[in-house]
Amino acid sequence: MIIADYKAVYEELRRHYRVESMKLLRSQEKRKFLQYFFKDRPKIMAWNQSFDLIHFSFFGIKIALSDHFKEKITELYYKIILPVKVYIPEILNYSWRWKSISMEDYNLVVYLADFIQKYENLVTNHKFNDKDFLMLQQSFVRFLYHESYASKMISAFTRAVKELFLNLQKDNSKAMAQIEELQEFFSYRYVGFSLFQAILAYNMVYYRRFLEFKDLVAPYTGHILQKDIYLCSYEVFNTMMNYLKNKYTELENWQKKLSEHLWIRSISKMDSPEDMKILEEFYASLGHDFQEDKGDAFLVMLLIAEGLANSIEEIHFNSWHLLSTEEEEKTMKISTTKDIDPIIKEIFEDLELAKARYSTVMPIKISLGTYNSWENPELFLNEKHQHFFYQKFQKIFSSFHTIAMCYRDILANKDKQAFTFLRFMVLSPQRYHGKAVYQVYEYFLKLIMKLCRYFKEENLSRGIRSAAKIEKIIQEIETDIDSLRDSNHIIDKGLEENQDVSENETDPEESVKA
Questions:
Q1: Is pLDDT above 90 for 506?
Q2: Could you write out the three-class secondary structure of 308-371?
Q3: Distance of alpha carbon 144 from alpha carbon 147, whole angstroms
Q4: Within 10 A of 467 (CB to CB), how many other CB atoms are there?
Q5: Is 136:115 a contact under the CB 8 Å cutoff?
Q6: What is the C-alpha separation between 431 and 29, in angstroms, rounded?
Q7: Whole-angstrom distance, CA of residue 234 vs CA of residue 93
Q8: Is the backbone of residue 60 left (phi > 0), alpha (psi -120 to 50) or beta?
């Protein structure tokens, strides 16, 4: 089996969304000796009295970093940086899944991780290395290139650490105190020795000129923070891609479920006079007057359920007189399924119990208007006989709902050879004369679903309520997917190509069998 490999996608993303390197430090020129000696040296000496980072030769003719320069930088690392380093790996591995962490947040933590790594390289090297220091300086200045960058990074890191401790269900007070020190570390307001002074000392020695930190940082000319893709490692990216692949599968499954519930909501709708007309006409076909009986909801349910059960029995047990597409008359049953037989039998048994109870103990009447004004009628029924009828009719209409689902399956297969009889036209029973057999099924499917909606059958009501919940779930999944995709759809294309490879790969065992 081919293992998913997204290396090419990873590299394409890095190429396509590469942020051009920008000059973060101003160009400086070394002072000529006389300028240095008479103009800058006194200022540098005065500044150095507070930090003791620079060594001056006799009369200050020569200038160099002090012997304890690296030692002081190292102390700062172990005091402030090392304590927060421990949180970085977990955040970089998992925070891209956390809703509280945006892509920009994640990348800011990546920049922090880069800074920490460069700092570690400097302090763990036995000797002070100019190259290591310059790389550390570049990484540090990145957070100072714009006045908001450092605060954004600290905010992002704080949110990530809080989420991390929340997931671990541990107290984060110690971590928050450590981050507070880190915030000071990146602040111009930092009291005492900091990396600001170390960088100033290094540059004053190198250029032999007095500098303030603002003299070092180049003017802001545009953002340097990556906002288009996650700057994660390839290992994390591979995990991300498989996560995204699963999310697409999950989305497809939920969309199928939503389609089902939306179909139920659509076919069962009872919000127009035309919808109500279907119910009233069926009631009239049973020999009853809907307007006259609607004051008694349970009587209407009983008469409709009985009439519907008789109609379904006729469909499944009686022979019909049909005309084929070849104009050949046939007498045959229009139903070949046996799955519905026990359901019909159970409906008639429940109806007999309901009719017997209604004829002996009539419940207190409830109008259909009142019944339909209740979202959950059971909560408003106070009399025990009302509860009996409600539960009994819930069971009966639940059985009708099951039959409707069977009709839907039959109609979904009406073009297949096994269901060619659905293309027959009805000659009798007379009330269906001239209709195609499938139209009879369509009529009863729609009628049953509308009746179940009207009488608040629990399964259908639950399905309709589920549609709103599923829509919310789909929206959340789509938001999750969108947070990982790129604007040029390189990730989506990579997933599609990988899917094509997976679908076209050959099972070695099948090759042997062939």
A1: no
A2: HHHHHHHHHHCCEEEECCCCCEEEECCCCCCCCHHHHHHHHHHHHHHHHHHHHCCCCCCCHHHH
A3: 6
A4: 18
A5: yes
A6: 102
A7: 11
A8: left
Our CA angle for 400, 406, 408, nearest 5°, is 105
3-state secondary structure of 494: helix
What's the gap between Cα 409 and its chain centre?
Answer: 32
Within 10 A of 320 (CB to CB), how many other CB atoms are there?
21
Task: Give strand pairing partners of 55.
Answer: 64
The two tokens of residue 151 are: 């605060």
* Beta-bridge mates of residue 436: 425
Any alpha helices (H) in 228-336, and if so which ranges?
234-267, 273-285, 290-293, 297-317
Peptide bond into 42 cis (omega under 30): no
Q: What is the pLDDT of residues 215-233, one digit of tens each?
A: 999 988 888 889 899 999 9
- pTM score, two decimals? 0.76
Calpha distance 430→426 (Å, rounded): 8
445: DSSP letter = H
Q: Where are the alpha helices (DSSP H) in 418-457?
A: 437-454
